[in-house]
Amino acid sequence: MTRLLIGLSVLGALISGAALAHVTVDQPTLPADSYVRIAIRVPHGCEGAATTGIRLQVPPELRGAKAMPVAGWALTTRMEGGVTVQGEHGTAHVPREVSWQGGNLPDDQYQEFVLLVRTPAEPGATLYFPVVQDCEGGKVSRWIERPSAPGERLRYPAYSVRITPKG
Amino acid sequence: MSLPGCLRAAGVALLLCFATVTGAWAHASLVEANPPDGATLQGSPPSLALRFDEEVRLLDLHLVGPNGPVTLAGVAHGVGDLLSARLPPDLPNGTYLASWRIVSADGHPVGGSLAFGVRAAPVTRSAPSDDAGTAWSTAGEVLRFLFYVAFALGAGGALFRALVQEVGRGERRGMAAAALGGVVLALLTLPVQGGAMLAAPFPSGLSDPGMIVAASTSTVFLRCLVAAAGMALVATSLIVAGKVARAAGVLGTVIAAVGLSLSGHAAAGGAAMQALLAAHALVAAYWLGAFWPLLVLLAREGSRASPAVRRFAALAIPAVAVLLVSGAIQALRHMPAWDALVTTTYGQLVLAKILGASLLLILAAVNHLRLTPALPTQGPAALSRSIKAEGLIGLAVLGITAVLSATSPHAAQTGDAGHVHAVHRHKEGTERNATARVSGWTVHLLVSPGLTGSNRITLRLERDGHPEGPAEVWLELSQEGAGVVGLRRRMSPTQPGTFVHEGPELAIPGPWKARVELLVSDFEQISAFLEFDVAAGR
Prior knowledge:
The complex is a heterodimer.
Chain A: H1 2-19, E1 24-25, E2 29-31, E3 35-42, E4 51-57, E5 64-67, E6 74-78, E7 84-87, E8 90-93, E9 97-105, E10 111-118, E11 126-129, E12 131-135, E13 140-143, E14 159-164
Parallel strand pairs in A: 2-14
Antiparallel strand pairs in A: 1-3, 3-10, 4-9, 4-12, 5-10, 6-9, 7-8, 11-14, 12-13
Chain B: H1 3-25, E1 30-34, E2 40-41, E3 47-52, E4 56-65, E5 68-70, E6 73-76, E7 82-86, E8 94-104, E9 109-118, H2 127-163, H3 169-198, H4 209-215, H5 219-239, H6 243-260, H7 270-289, H8 291-301, H9 306-334, H10 340-343, H11 345-378, H12 381-404, H13 420-427, E10 432-438, E11 441-448, E12 455-463, E13 466-467, E14 472-479, E15 484-490, E16 492-495, E17 498-503, E18 510-521, E19 524-534
Parallel strand pairs in B: 2-9
Antiparallel strand pairs in B: 1-3, 3-7, 4-5, 4-8, 6-7, 8-9, 10-11, 11-12, 12-13, 12-17, 14-15, 14-18, 16-17, 18-19
Helix pairs in contact in B: 2-3, 2-5, 2-6, 2-7, 2-12, 3-4, 3-5, 5-6, 6-7, 7-9, 8-12, 9-11, 11-12
């Protein structure tokens, strides 16, 4: 009886947890060896404060990443530390970091930040998309935690995306 | 299951549900609190007010002060996102811990805590409780030593009769008595641990059942119960003759050895370290426990005991290797640097143990290489003498081990550097520390004085063996059993690789969990989890 109750409540916690608002990527899996549009979803600010900047560390496994500008936000990319890959159109440089800065997204509004990425050639990898959310008043939410043990619950998880076979 | 039992189970399940949710997925968050988290107030606050970033519904709000729970008058959750409660007038001076559970608008339960001090005079211990603390820790060391002796005699005897040769009825009775003594000693450790945790008066606190309740929150509780159960099985098996009894004795010994590994330095190191410690204890029992039956055998059978001695030695040689390797790994794990061998009490005790073990090894080598081969021709007198000497040294090593397992591996902090030894020994009863390793980082946590009230929490961080300080270090303190979850504090750097937080958060005695977050770079964060006990102060 006790076990059943505990099991049910853990299940409840899992279900309710999954629905809660984090900064995430809109797709949990991506096909290998493809150009795919993905979006970083920002459902709220930092503890009530409006979002003023989104910085993404591009997963080093990606073979390309181009960010889409957003009106009112300055788009910058940092190339140092990024990888260089041979593509079908010659050598391509993948940025290490992409950031949209200087906007103002109130806590009660929603925005997406879009990228076109080229996925790894082989399926199987799990890619982490760590995002730093800068907010008004110097507040920061870092969506950068990666699990150190399977099943570990994180406060601010970095969104993870699995690379699946090209369909 | 009875109805109240069901309700209790449901309550536990509900709590668990909240604990998981709040830990991981906090949604509605606290925007403002009055009194603010971490504040020191000059007077008694009239009320406690919490404002959240969205509408919330209150599930539970409670306040714990220096004299226990404080009754809140009129909890109101009038205006949407605001919760407030009137406080009784003239709160006594000290530290207060408020914990709440709420359901946010989207239906997700969330919990949190905050701490504040009223005219927060730092909680200091009076001299008598200090003496009591020392008395409790000394009592703990003596009990542990006696338990080790009982374990070696009883469990070691059980191993001897199972692995080397059946022993006589008289010896079996003696060994059973020793094992029974072990059961009593293990159970006696419970009130002593509780007394140390609550800093109760010594020794009158021993008769207070509250001490056992206090101990039940500590890892020592399980350790003592499992060890006692193992020793009880050993004692029973020793009374009975036959194959089944011999096997049961080995099983009991293993259970007791596993029990020993459930608390203490090894328990903090995970399953591998615990297995290592259990193996260490088993092998030590085999070796030290064999002295008595061997002596009896030599006295009774003289040179005819030769085959049994050889059987013992055949197992003892690999056993000693296990003993040395597991002991060395344990010691190395806790040694921050080589010079700690001389500069810290822990290091000096390790050195003393190494010395004792070396003497034992030399005697064992002499026995094995010279005296055992000479047994058939020259009689047992020389071998008996040597085994007696081994037994005495073994006792000394067990004594050192008993003190060693209660001694912190880390030196006292910088401020006390001038008299490390004295301060360190003095504080042993309460000062807490824990160590965790994660992705190349070593995190040492030291809580001083480790009593409820104001504490100084020091983190020493090393990356690949060198002190290193990440950009930011956050500490999150929880005691889920008491409803305290996620007290977050940013720690301040004092010197490279050392971060400190001083505050009143540890207001409730019992087991605390610390989650340490190291922000290594903008995009890289490492979390370490540590646990420690806090004793009642004053």
